[in-house]
Amino acid sequence: MAKDHGKQIKDDEKYEALRDEGMSKEKAARIANTPNAGKKGGKASKMEERTKEELVKDAKKIGIKGYSKMNKGELSDKIRNH
Fold first, then answer.
1. Which Gene3D superfamilies match (predicted)?
2. Number of structural domains, the chain?
């Protein structure tokens, strides 16, 4: 049985599994709290197909700092590894 992480984590089992895989607390919590996070077949386009403006919007949304000075490749890497 998964440890209860309080109301800030919606799916405790998923959170613990992600932490065991080495994800940061922030990233594991974000994924565990996403509705339907376990389902496959997301609608997001590939990073390479997104415009820089779309990547900047995603970077702002997830709290990446310094995104305005990054090029498209750097943004893609930061978003993937955040």
1. 1.10.720.10
2. 2
